[in-house]
Write a structure and sequence with these properties.
By secondary structure, the chain is an alpha+beta fold. The protein is built from 6 helices and 8 strands.
């Protein structure tokens, strides 16, 4: 041995091994992507959608068409706003069910893309919006990050989430959906 490290063959993406005492090389974007894209089994996931500005039904319909791996959509429900500034219009809400191998983070990215396509503007917390998409559940996964918590931390307190979720997965809301929580949630038909 001459003490030199072998060079990777042309066209390979293998990183050279570190010399003794050297820190390992940082992962490349390609290797990080490969590691993140390990095959995942599809799971049931649920997203909540709401709109209280403009063509509410149209924004919800466009979002459902834009979201990946949708296998079911609840009925539409109208509710008065919860929190936020006074004087807002009523929300139309629904829940979509996905059968997906996407990660919670990938679903958040898809949700944010749907909101951007609806030209959502974030002015104040819980203010009026063309579209709001929340990641509720992704199989049995748990995430606790500053911008993403799964299961959604307030879903069990919100009738506008639990009532449409019960359309798709009644077994998930047993013991959570009470008459008090469901009060004020009005069915208005389908998309």
């Amino acid at each position: 041995m001459t003490g030199r490290r072998p060079r990777p063959q042309s066209g390979t993406s293998r990183r050279p091994l570190p010399r003794p005492g050297e820190a390992p090389a940082r992962p490349t974007a390609e290797s990080a992507l490969k590691e993140r894209r390990q095959p995942r089994s599809p799971v049931r996931a649920f997203l909540a959608l709401g709109s209280n500005l403009g063509d509410r039904r149209g924004y919800l319909r466009a979002a459902v068409e834009r979201l990946p791996d949708v296998v079911g959509v609840s009925q539409l429900y109208e509710t008065d706003p919860v929190g936020g500034p006074p004087g807002q219009g009523a929300f139309l809400n629904c829940v979509v069910e996905l059968r997906t191998a996407r990660t919670p983070r990938e679903l958040l990215t898809a949700a944010q893309a749907a909101e951007a396509a609806a030209e959502r503007i974030r002015v104040e917390r819980w203010g009026p919006r063309t579209l709001d998409v929340d990641v509720l559940l992704v199989g049995d996964e748990r995430v606790d990050e500053p911008d993403l918590i799964v299961p959604h931390p307030r879903m069990w307190e919100r009738g506008f989430v639990l009532v449409p979720l019960a359309d798709l997965a009644p077994e998930l809301v047993v013991g959570h959906l009470t008459s008090d929580i469901g009060r004020g949630v009005r069915k208005v038909g389908g998309l």
